[in-house]
Amino acid sequence: MLGNCRGFGTALLLALTHVMSVSFASEPASSSEVTPVKAPIIKAAEWAEQLEPDFASVQCSSGDYHTRVRRLAFCVAPIDEPAVVPLDDATFRYRVLVEKGLDTATNDFAKAVGSIFRSKTGWMQAGLSFVQVTKGEDFTVFLAQPRSVDRLCRPLTTEGTLSCAISGKAVINAKRWFEGAETWNGNDIPGYRNYLVNHEVGHLLGLGHTGCPEEGAPAPVMLPQTRYLKGCTASGLISERDLQMIARVMPLLRRRLRTARPGRLLSKPMFSRKRRWYRKRRGRRRYARRRRRR
Fold first, then answer.
1. How confident is the model at residue 69 (pLDDT cuts 50, 70, 90)?
2. How high is the mean pLDDT of the chain?
3. Cα 26 from Cα 22, distance rounded (Å)
4. What distances in angstroms separate CA 78 from CA 28, 41, 82, 100, one per listed residue?
């Protein structure tokens, strides 16, 4: 009797196992088991954000090679034109990096930046010249997606809409580069790009913001035209006020160009409140020591 019960139990268990296997096999695979489809690389004109690419699979379509900054993959733009200016105490070396996903714009962006630097309406008016390099640069010009700009500009706040200049980096927001700004009414994209590059590089050279000189006048480049115009008209050309501002820092710029190592020239701000505060405190301490000696 006991043997019959065991045999019946074994048969019942086998039948249940068969039914469960059939039922599970008939169920569709879960969504987690579906092989994800890799997002296509966006084109230059379609600057919309995408997931951060896998650095190991980066293949720059136009640049010489790739590099990484703050865990973001960038393509190094090839040199647009050979250097035709002497490397003296008024020449800056710059490198161009374009974020992976916008790499189809690498050559166009490098050419645009080079033409802005070589323009007689740019910082050349102040006696400055710029030479593109792939290493040993004094500063770097980035083209990055809005989310990446926020990361590169920390601790500055760009909110996905602004560009910035910090620690030897002129970070250009792709949203602004391709679409312009509301203050420019979306018109004259080349003119806005002139302003954008000259403005951020002006910050690296030690210049701060300025105001509108008078109602209806062309806005200085160092006026933050992406946010407001304060009664001026939009302009991407270097103004007389900009030249006056750069003239005040030229002695320090020339001294740094003669003594600084490549890559260290503009890695720190030319002027800052904190540094001025330290200088004042150091001066007060020296004065106090002299008084005590007397």
1. confident
2. 75
3. 6
4. 50, 21, 11, 15
Which uninterrupted H or E stretch holds 290?
helix 273-293
What pLDDT was estimated at residue 65?
Answer: 64
Phi and psi angles of residue 242, each rounded to the nearest 5 degrees, phi first: -60, -40
Least trusted range by pLDDT, from 63-67, 82-86, 167-171, 281-285: 82-86
Are 82 and 117 in contact, with CB atoms under 8 Å apart?
no
23, 135, 139 from 264: Cα distances, Å:
68, 12, 8
Quick one: pLDDT band at residue 22, thresholds 50, 70, 90? very low
**What is the reported pLDDT for 88?**
60
Instruction: Using the structure block, give the residue that is written with the tokens 């102040």.
Output: 126
Distance CA 173, CA 147 (A): 9
Query: In this structure, how many other beta carbons lie within 10 angstroms of the beta carbon of residue 77?
Result: 28
Please enumerate in sequence order all residues whose Cβ is within 8 A of that of 33, keeping only pairs 6 or more positions apart, or say none: none
Q: Span 239-266, mean pLDDT? A: 79
CA 139/CA 129 separation, integer angstroms: 13
Which numeric CATH code is attached to 55-263? 3.40.390.10
Residue 257: which residues within 8 A CB-CB, separation 6 or more?
A: 88, 89, 90, 91, 92, 138, 265
Q: Which residue has the tokens 């714009």?
A: 105
- What the block records as the tokens of 181 is 């700004």
Q: How far is residue 162's CA from residue 174's CA, in Å, rounded to a whole number? A: 10
Least Cα distance to 50 among 58, 59, 61, 41 occurs for 41
Q: Residue 79: its pLDDT value, please?
A: 83
**Nearest one of 6, 43, 265, 23 to 136, comparing CA atoms:** 265
Position 169 scores a pLDDT of 92
Q: What is the spatial distance between Cα 178 and Cα 191, in angstroms, rounded to a whole number? A: 12
